[in-house]
From TrEMBL:
Residues 105-338 form the Radical SAM core domain. Belongs to the radical SAM superfamily. RlmN family. One of its GO terms (cellular component) is cytoplasm. InterPro entries: Aldolase_TIM, Methyltransferase_A, RlmN_N, RNA_MTrfase_RlmN, rRNA_lsu_MTrfase_RlmN/Cfr, rSAM, rSAM_sf. [4Fe-4S] cluster binds at residues 119, 123, 126. This is Probable dual-specificity RNA methyltransferase RlmN. Binds 1 [4Fe-4S] cluster. The cluster is coordinated with 3 cysteines and an exchangeable S-adenosyl-L-methionine. It catalyses: adenosine(37) in tRNA + 2 reduced [2Fe-2S]-[ferredoxin] + 2 S-adenosyl-L-methionine = 2-methyladenosine(37) in tRNA + 5'-deoxyadenosine + L-methionine + 2 oxidized [2Fe-2S]-[ferredoxin] + S-adenosyl-L-homocysteine; adenosine(2503) in 23S rRNA + 2 reduced [2Fe-2S]-[ferredoxin] + 2 S-adenosyl-L-methionine = 2-methyladenosine(2503) in 23S rRNA + 5'-deoxyadenosine + L-methionine + 2 oxidized [2Fe-2S]-[ferredoxin] + S-adenosyl-L-homocysteine. The gene is rlmN. The active site is at residues 99, 343.
């Protein structure tokens, strides 16, 4: 890892959408079709260097090499779960580390990507916030996680079929790079991931919920809610003091009205904190009449936090109360439990060991 500490002076080639590459090609006096060839090498053939782009003139390849860098991801650790989940801890060029998870389902392969090194949102039950926010990732550093996962799957002729932006960080605090990442992912000449197979999750950054509603995409929106009222949510999620519960709910109603799309509410159940029948009743009242779905998540035990898991019967009771009020609710199936697949756990262990 030591030899990788360096200042990143060149932009990453993965930072650029096809339209931006077309503009760059034109500005550099090259024929327009070169941008399409370049995009094809990056996302269809998935090469790891400009030198491999054999149908591009050597002088053009040299120009690309002079102007751009490939994202430096180095595999620090890779764990594979009994259920097929693969979790990577990647090193970046500046010695920071990020996590990426590949999940195998019977309906396809999903990848959970990270958008920031660390996180400043501060949810009290989450390992991602330990150590705070170090920096935002560029669009290319997010893209590289998916390309790496697809290269892994290429060995068995599989493909990334869906993406969840639910790894470390708050994507709506790194809004433009996240949106550029999404534009690259959905492009029909690239990885061509269906928009409805992508979900972006936010803790409730209100101005950018409105902005996202106006983007006119088919990409799914999930909101980490974790409490049915302002007071409890502020205790669990300090971000709620910046963007209060009622303001978040108002922005989500705008999103539904503008897009006609259903919202997923993510609710981490924490034993004795937010998982009582009265919490379920209150949540049902808050969500009444909204086009939504609740994803109940039994909280992972994080050694640095003191929370305990909700008993199994209580989880089913919480779900039953919501459904009694006609609120669709499912319980998230755990994956990668044996490899610390919860966001931030692997990175936290790595930070601890390197500090030692």
């Amino acid at each position: 890892m030591g030899e990788q500490i360096q200042e990143q002076t060149k932009p990453f080639i993965y930072d650029y959408t096809l339209e931006e590459l077309q503009a760059w090609v034109k500005d550099n006096g090259e024929p327009a079709f070169r941008a399409g060839q370049l995009f094809d090498w990056l996302y269809v053939k998935r090469v790891r260097s400009f030198d491999e782009m054999s149908n591009l003139p050597k002088a053009f390849r040299q120009k690309l090499d002079d102007q751009f860098a490939f994202v430096t991801l180095s595999e620090i650790t890779k764990f594979e779960s009994k259920d097929g989940t693969v979790k990577f801890l990647f090193g970046l060029h500046d010695n920071h580390a990020i996590e990426t998870v590949v999940m195998r389902h019977n309906y396809g392969n999903s990848i959970c990507v990270t958008t920031q090194v660390g996180c400043r949102v501060g949810c009290t039950f989450c390992a991602s916030t330990l150590g705070g926010l170090k920096r935002n990732l560029t669009a290319g550093e997010i893209v590289a996680q998916v390309v790496w996962a697809q290269q892994l799957l290429d060995a068995t002729n599989e493909r990334v079929s869906s993406i969840v932006i639910m790894g470390t960080g708050e994507p709506f605090e790194n809004y433009e790079p996240t949106m550029n990442f999404l534009r690259i992912m959905i492009h029909e000449k690239g990885l061509n991931i269906g928009q409805r197979h992508i979900t972006v999750s936010t803790s409730g950054i209100v101005p950018n919920i409105y902005k996202f509603a106006d983007e006119n995409t088919q990409i799914n929106l999930a909101i980490s809610i974790h409490a049915p009222n302002d007071a409890l949510r502020s205790k669990l999620m300090p971000v709620n003091r910046r963007f209060p519960f009622n303001d978040v709910m108002e922005s989500l109603r705008y999103y539904i009205a503008k897009t006609g799309r259903r919202i997923t509410f993510e609710y981490a159940l924490i034993g004795g904190v937010n998982d009582r029948p009265e919490h379920a009743e209150e949540l049902a009242q808050v969500l009444q009449g909204m086009l939504c779905h609740v994803n109940l998540i039994p909280v992972n035990h994080v050694p640095e936090r003191n929370y305990v898991r909700t008993p199994r019967d209580d989880i089913f009771e919480f779900q039953r109360i919501l459904e009694k009020h006609k609120i669709n609710a499912t319980i998230r199936r755990e994956q990668g439990h044996d490899i610390a697949a919860a966001c931030g756990q692997l990175r936290a262990k790595h930070m601890e060991s390197t500090a030692r």
